[in-house]
Design goal:
- The chain has four helices and 23 strands.
- It is an alpha+beta fold.
- The strands form five sheets. Strands 1, 3, 18, 19, 20, 21 and 22 form a seven-stranded antiparallel β-sheet that branches.
- α2 packs antiparallel against α3.
- The chain is elongated.
């Protein structure tokens, strides 16, 4: 019987087979076991296969470099608003304007029947008459003294009376000016006091009603007149962002009522006090409002533009996970590894959150699937 020839094995194959045999057993004769795969470090998870629903985004500088996004509220320009109270006591008898009316400086707003006004006018009329009499008396005494018909002490007495009368007239006239009453139009029966607008503007409030009793020391505003062509936006800037805010800095203001419109302004003042509860500082932005679209008490979003080239990192808002005390993101490390990383986040603007600390340019963060990965990392 003829045996088939044995297969010829190459020298390399023999060496490989010997290496496999030698590695299959330890020196003590036991079978070799591969070391177990190391678990992921705390705060990380390693997935053998990344689900398709996990989407990533790269950490990158904000398109508007150096911008600081804050919230605020539209307010009156305090230099262009006048809350008019009653300088006299009395009763409102007539209303001359309505809310929304445009008024000029000096225009009548309402009428008050006031004994105070009547008394002030009567004092002015009496003081004017006394001053005229004393002037004439002084002139007569001076002529008589020149003719040696009266002693000089009569002239001195007339001079004293004339000085006192002039002082009384000045005091009465000053009282009328404080009340806004024209001395040239004063008559002895002027109990009808007209409250007038101190500035040009729009009547934005008029809580006064006919028959309302008013007091000079009441401190109640009867009419509010404001120039709405320029307003303030009072923004709350976090303490950590103060280094990026300065007077004269350009600002953009948006309000919900006009979604596509941007109101341009500038920082007029940076507050000197930090609110201990919110850790914010009030910043005043002065905004032109020629079309009167902005209204006081509107909520506003403000973008304070910083210096060009200033690097500000942002991530999509949906990538930021918050538990009410701290903010975190899930960072993709590659090869199926993901790490939960705490960050210091700033305000949100246009769907992106500013990152103050915790990330670097080029990092990859999880946008979709972040909650799933956080649960896997935390073991929940």
């Amino acid at each position: 019987m003829i045996r088939p020839p044995l297969p010829v094995r190459s020298p390399l194959a023999a060496v490989a087979a010997a290496a496999l045999v030698s590695s299959a057993a330890c020196s003590d004769g036991r079978a070799f076991e591969a070391p177990p795969r190391r678990p992921a470090p705390p705060g990380e998870v390693r997935l053998p296969e990344v689900p398709d629903f996990v989407k990533l985004a790269r950490v990158e500088p904000s398109p508007e470099a150096g911008a600081t996004a804050v919230t605020g509220k539209v307010a009156f320009d305090e230099g262009r608003v006048s809350r008019v109270g009653a300088p006299v006591s009395g009763r409102v008898t007539e209303l001359l304007v309505q809310a929304g009316d445009r008024v000029k400086k000096g225009q009548g707003l309402l009428v008050i029947a006031s004994p105070d006004a009547e008394s002030a006018v009567a004092d002015f009329v009496a003081a004017s008459a006394d001053a005229e009499v004393t002037r004439k008396t002084l002139a007569r005494e001076q002529r008589l003294y020149a003719d040696q018909a009266v002693p000089y002490k009569e002239v001195l007495q007339a001079q004293s009376d004339e000085t006192k009368a002039a002082a009384a007239l000045a005091r009465a006239q000053g009282r009328l000016e404080v009340l806004g009453i024209d001395p040239r139009a004063a008559t002895p029966r002027a109990s009808r006091y007209v409250l007038r607008a101190p500035i040009d503007g729009v009547v934005v409030e008029r809580p006064a009603n006919p028959g309302m009793e008013v007091r000079a020391d009441g401190g109640t505003s009867l009419v509010t007149v404001a120039d709405l062509s320029r307003l303030w936006v009072l923004a709350d800037v976090y303490e950590r962002d103060l280094g990026q805010v300065a007077e004269g800095q350009a600002a953009s203001v948006k309000v919900a009522g006009f979604p596509g419109k941007v109101f341009e302004g500038r920082v007029g003042h940076v507050g000197d006090l930090v609110d201990p509860a919110t850790r914010t500082v009030k910043v005043r932005i002065e905004v032109a409002n020629p079309d009167r679209l902005l209204k006081p008490e509107m909520f506003a979003r403000v973008s304070l533009r910083g210096a060009p080239g200033e690097a500000v990192l942002t991530v999509p808002a949906q990538a930021v996970l918050s538990d009410g005390e701290a903010s975190a993101v899930v960072v993709a490390l590659g090869e199926g590894r993901f790490q939960k990383r705490t960050i210091e986040s700033g305000p949100e603007q246009d769907g992106r959150v500013r990152v103050l600390a915790g990330l670097a340019p080029g990092d990859q963060v999880v946008v979709d699937g972040a909650l799933f990965l956080r649960a896997a990392i935390d073991g929940t």
